[in-house]
Amino acid sequence: MDKFIVEGGHRLNGRITVSGAKNASLALMPTCLLAPGVFHLDNTPNNRDVWTFSRLLGSLGVHAELNGHTLLLDSTNINSFEAPYEHVKKMRASIYVLGPLVARFGQARVSLPGGCNFGPRPVDLHLKGLEKLGAQISIDGGYINASCPRLQGAPFHFDISSVGASVNVMMAAVLAKGHTTLTNVAIEPEVTALARMLVSMGANIEGIGTTTLEIDGVDELRPVRHDTIPDRIEAATFLIAAAMTRGDVTLDHVNPYHLTAVIQKLEESGAELDVAGDTIRITMNDAPNAVDITTAPYPGYPTDSQAQWAAYMLLAKGASRVRDTIYPTRFGYVPELQRLGADIETGDMYCVVKGGAHLSGATVMSSDLRASASLVLAGMVAEGSTEILRVYHLDRGYESLEHKLNAVGARIRRERTEEF
Ligand code: UD1
Fold first, then answer.
1. Structural domains of the chain, with CATH
2. Do residues 379 and 398 touch, judged by C-beta distance below 8 A?
3. Which residues contact 116 (CB under 8 A, 6 or more apart)?
4. Of the candidates 329, 365, 374, 333, which has an alpha carbon nearest to the alpha carbon of residue 348?
């Protein structure tokens, strides 16, 4: 296992290129199950989740090859319809193969994802949506079995806004016979990116970017070459890192529009942001103002940048409240930040961060992907060295985080440990 040693006290200054969005890649990759042939996904980030999904697709018979940042997926010879536990346990997005497999091959067997480090994450909406399109669903031995000779279009309303369920049901509906109306669809940019790719493959989808999608099913789709949108969560992490170190950083290859809520909060905190085309420059010269956030589905403040904001607010002139309405128990990072000297109290769905506490380096443990990012940020402003264990969580969703940050002035070293 790897760990990071972060030396605090270094200001960030320079340019960082933002990678393709991990969560978009995970939504785009399973589209190769909807049509036989060779797909190319450009701007794919080289991170662990992409490797895990490639291996899962490989177990279904897809040939996956990452050349630089272009992912080639050859789905000519699919020969299995089962996503085993060994893959799904590593990554919940593995459930994205369910919709496309049942839509194209009439059958799928996918291990049920369990809970995760920030609480229960049910998949009931994925299953209800597929059932509405005619799939017979049963659960046995920890597996979801879905079957249907040909899905039929139908109206379906998502009770709550869900990225994953929207992705799964949309991929199924494009090959269903007849018309599907989906309402309360998630409008996260990653969902919209998937809809655009499906259209380029020959799908009929109206209302892209809105919460209602009108889909006319087609009999077949074709493979395409497609570009992956920039990672708004990676970008938010860098913006917050720059503000925390009172730095001056420009992000290249970013979509500022996807970051509106984060940019606004950073401005309220006292940072200066200049947006020009696909770049954002952030400068910060002072301790931040205390600013509350509440996470919400897009275009609200993203839950995936919540832990990073809490780290930022450790430096604020006052107390701020960080509330998560999407994952109410996503505060596993709090005890670790407290090991660095943070003054944080947790409550029901929120934590209160009291700014101004003296932070000093310590050994801390990553518990999930974004929690790890918050520990790196806190380590960058703590006095002395912070050792962050289990950075494999971080490697799931960030490509070369330490190299990108070191290139603009951070001091982060990766080392192997014997820890189990
Ligand atoms: C995706 C993202 C994750 C992000 C989350 C919220 C990917 C691979 N992951 O996760 O990084 O934190 O969106 O933006 O893109 N829910 C149900 N039933 C369901 C599905 C979801 O109750 O069947 C609930 C969840 O518990 C949660 C809320 O809906 O409270 C939103 O979850 P959802 O948008 O589905 O998250 P994921 O797709 O798992």
1. 2-19+230-416 (3.65.10.10), 22-227 (3.65.10.10)
2. no
3. 92, 368
4. 329
- pLDDT over threshold 70, residue 61: yes
* Nearest ligand 1 atom to alpha carbon 126: 23
Q: Which of 92, 116, 121, 331 to mutate to test the pocket of ligand 1 (most atoms within 8 A of CB)?
A: 121
Which residues contact ligand 1 via a Cβ below 6 A?
23, 26, 92-93, 121-126, 160, 162-165, 186, 190, 303-304, 326-327
In percent, the amount of the chain with pLDDT more than 70 equals 98
How many angstroms does the Cα of residue 121 sit away from the middle of ligand 1? 7
- The protein residue with its alpha carbon nearest to ligand 1, atom 19, reads 123
Query: pLDDT-derived band of residue 418, with 50, 70 and 90 as boundaries?
Result: confident
Ligand 1 centre distance from Cα of residue 252 (Å): 28
Q: What are phi and psi of 11, to 5 degrees?
A: -80, 140
CA-nearest residue for atom 5, ligand 1, is 163
C-alpha span between 71 and 64 (Å, rounded)? 7
* Smallest CA separation from ligand 1 atom 1, residue: 163
29 contacts: CB under 8 Å, gap ≥ 6: 41, 50, 53, 54, 57, 71, 73, 96
Per-residue pLDDT reduced to its tens digit, 220-236: 999 999 999 999 999 99
Whether this prediction's pTM lies above 0.85 is answered by yes
Strands 363-365, 385-389: parallel, antiparallel or unpaired by DSSP?
parallel
Q: Which residues are catalytic?
A: 116
Nearest CA to ligand 1 atom 31: 162
Mutation test of ligand 1: which of 118, 163, 167 has the most ligand atoms closer than 8 Å to its C-beta? 163
Nearest residue to 135 via CA among 163, 110, 114: 110
What distance in Å separates the CA atoms of residue 241 and residue 308, rounded to the nearest whole number?
A: 8
188: amino acid identity, one letter: E
Tens digit of each residue's pLDDT (9 = 90 or more) over 106-127: 999 999 986 667 666 789 999 9
> At residue 309, does pLDDT exceed 70?
yes
DSSP assignment letter at 360: B
The residue-averaged pLDDT of 190-217 equals 98
**Measuring CA to CA, which residue among 205, 216, 213 is closest to residue 177?**
216
Which atom of ligand 1 is the closest one to the Cα of 93? 8
Q: For tokens 């994952």, what's the residue?
A: 327
